[in-house]
Amino acid sequence: MANRLVSGQDEISGIVLAAVQPKTPAGRRSLLFPGSAMGGMSSFSPVFIAVERFGSFLDPSFFRRCFLLSFFPYLAGPAMAGPSSSQVVIEQVPLTDAPEGSGARKIDAGAGGVLIPALTKGRAEPQWALYDNEGKRIGAAVTGRILPVSPGIYTAKVGSGSRSQQLAVKIEVRQGFISRVQPNWGALVVHLVNEEETPFRGFYQLFEFISRDAYGFGRGAEEELGETVDTWLLPPGIYKLVGPLETYEAIRNFVTIEVLPNRVIHYAIVADSKSGDFLGSGVVPTGDFTVRGSITGRRPRVQVGGFKIKARIGGDFSQSASDNVLGLGGNSLGFGLFTDFSANYLWKKHIFNLFIDLEGGVRKNSDENFVRKVRDEISISSIYIHQTWPLVGRYVRFQATTQFAKSFARYDDPTEIVVDGVSQGEQTSLQLSGSFDPLFLQEGMGLNFRLFKNVFADLDARVGGSLRHTISSGFLVRRDDSQGDVELFDRVRGSTEIGAELVLLGAARFGQIASYRNYTNAFVSTENKLRFRSDHIVSVRLVKSLSVGLLLGLRKDDTTADRIGFTQALFIRASKRVF
Fold first, then answer.
1. Which of 10, 25, 253, 529 would bridge with 243, disulfide CB 3.0–4.6 Å?
2. Cis ω before 438 (30° cut-off from 0)
3. Burial call 419-429: b when 16+ CB within 10 Å, e when fewer
4. Rounded-to-integer distance, Cα 137 and Cα 144, Å
5. Which residues lie below 8 Å from residue 334, measured CB to CB, with a gap of 6+?
6. Secondary structure (3-state) at 255
């Protein structure tokens, strides 16, 4: 049975722990620990005072937001005690009664522990830290997990924002007991969705309404792909959310939210995924945004998980330059069309994604009197991930890539062609491959790691074993030692290889107009042959459906060429979502 600490003085240690408050409406007594009121500072460092006084000569909200809350919190130590919770109930729970899965079994004999319960998912909430009476950091833990410590008096710092904005809670740890803190703060979960109710990685800023203190940037998540929205742990009060390019003084693109103690608030903001403008907002009764219905008030047909389907069509105008890439070379101007289709499914720890991409385009090279195709690709890829642990999951993936039309090598003047050492005579056109030939297949399985996740960037890595198949009746690859008026080609037949793969997927956003994406796939076979592809795309949005992009690509395939291929393309792309 848990024992609630309600006396003003511990009879064993003789230390005054708290002043007894009147009973709450629920009939429980709560504790008021020595310290400042909510929102105040219990202590100041000289540097903090100097910074605050200097900041008074500037716009206070601007100064705190851009300097104090972004840079100074990392320099300030635990001396900045921060706001203290005015009413905190701490229960002394025997180790035998600790919640299942909280880590009580790891506590040694003669020790105790501290437990800060999770209001949402522990991994989505900020870690809390524990300090001794001298301000030394003892350790940190995820909410919902016990932090084992020796008996004594400690201070826990809980919440979002800088160190000065976190709640300070005095805690006594007893031998053989878990000091479980009943949260007197609230949880705020902000979901950003577009007009199709699709969650996306939009940005916003969070301020405390009365003090105008900035708590920092927040970001939505692609929840239908298994990403989790981070939870804000905040002192009770009213907060203001503004768009990514707005300030606290914003009179448009803002909302206000009241955070209540020990309550979870799911708040949805409908925003333009390109400009970031708020289109609507409100509190919703569910945090499940993997299916439609959460905003419109309809009860989702599937309560947990569900399919999401998307499709786009578009076109682009490009300028490109290539060197050492099969069938491509020199400078060119081109025009292309594309369409893609994706289906995603999420249920608990199970994530599935299917993506179909069709691209085609033609170009005119500066030194040629004919038009050739610049892009011709059909790609089907699927992946299943079991998110076994918060940052590590197991994956199985499949990918197939081929082309629509035949590929040709064309020449302005008759050129002698030699294939596999046999002369084909002089020709102005040579077929390199047929329709749907070659077909490249990839299968892989291994571990998926979430290496980095930040408001502005994220990076995932996949490491595992892989099979690579090339199915072909025999396509032609130009040899590197071709010289003068003689073109040498080798015929490449089908093959199967087994080896190890490394896949990196990264993304970053710079405000609401610029973004960066990276896809890198490296494969090493058991015969030490390397297949490597790395694409880097920087995109700048001009208007809602029009953007300028720069593609830099590297290719290396030991089965077809000895040198590294390089591709650069500058294009203007327009796209429209169909459904």
1. 253
2. yes
3. eeeeeeeeeee
4. 19
5. 317, 318, 319, 320, 361, 362, 363, 364, 374, 375
6. strand
193-246 pLDDT, tens digit per residue, is 988 788 888 889 999 999 999 998 998 988 877 778 899 999 999 999 999 888
> Are the CB atoms for 155 and 122 separated by under 8 Å?
no
Lowest-confidence pick of 114-118, 284-288, 419-423: 284-288
Cα(506)–Cα(535) distance, integer angstroms: 11
Q: Which of 10-19, 63-72, 153-162, 373-382 has the highest mean pLDDT?
A: 153-162
Inform me whether the pLDDT recorded for 157 exceeds 50. yes
Structure tokens at 138: 């003892």
pLDDT digits (tens, 9 = 90+) for 282-306: 998 877 776 666 677 665 444 444 5
- Given the DSSP bridges, would you call strands 486-492 and 177-182 parallel, antiparallel or unpaired? unpaired
Does this model's pTM top 0.85? Answer: no
Which H or E run contains 453?
Answer: strand 439-453
Q: Which amino acid is at 303?
A: Q
Count of other CB atoms within 10 angstroms of residue 248: 20
Cα three-residue angle 103-390-114, rounded to 5 degrees:
30
In angstroms, rounded to a whole number, what is the distance separating the alpha carbons of residues 6 and 87?
12
Rounded CA separation 514/511 (Å): 6
Query: What per-residue confidence (pLDDT) applies to 392?
Result: 92
Q: Which segments of 6-66 are extended strands (E)?
A: 19-20, 31-32
Kind of pairing between the strands at 203-208 and 214-219:
antiparallel
Q: Name the token pair of 252.
A: 């448009």
d(CA 281, CA 274): 17
What string of DSSP letters covers 315-384? EEEEEEEEEEETTEEEEEEEEEEEEEEEEEEEETTEEEEEEEEEEEEEEEETT-SSEEEEEEEEEEEEEE
pLDDT surpasses 90 at 276:
no
Is residue 484 predicted with pLDDT exceeding 90? no
Residue 401 neighbours by CB under 8 Å, 6+ apart: 377, 378, 379, 380, 439, 440
The mean pLDDT of 52-68, rounded to a whole number, is 37
DSSP code of 74?
G
Per-residue pLDDT reduced to its tens digit, 525-555: 999 999 999 999 998 877 767 888 888 999 9
What does the buried/exposed string (b/e) look like for 172-205 if buried means 16 or more CB atoms within 10 Å of the residue's CB? Answer: bbbeebbbbbbbbbbbbbbbbbbeebbbbbbbbb
Quick one: how many helices (H) and strands (E) in the chain?
Answer: 2, 35
